[in-house]
Amino acid sequence: MKIKRAKKSGNVLVESGPADDLLIGRSECFGAAEKTPFKLKNILVPIDFSTCSKKALQYAIPFARQFNATLTLVHVVQSNYFPGGEFSGGYDFARAEKELRESAGQQLAKLVLEEVDEFVPVKTLVRGGPPVQEIVTAARETESDLILLSTHGRTGLKHVFLGSVAENIVRLAPCPVLVVREHEREFVSN
Amino acid sequence: MRTRKLMANGKRPRGRTAARLSGSRSHAAEVPASASLKLKSVLVPVDFSESSKKAIAYAQAFARQFNAAIILLHVVEAIPWSADYGYGEVRGIGPDEYLVKRCRTRLETLRRRQAQASSRCQTTVRSGKAFDEIVKAAKELDVNLIILATHGHVGLDHTLLGSTAESVVRHAPCPVLIVRQQERDFI
Question: ipTM exceeding 0.90?
Answer without folding.
Answer: no
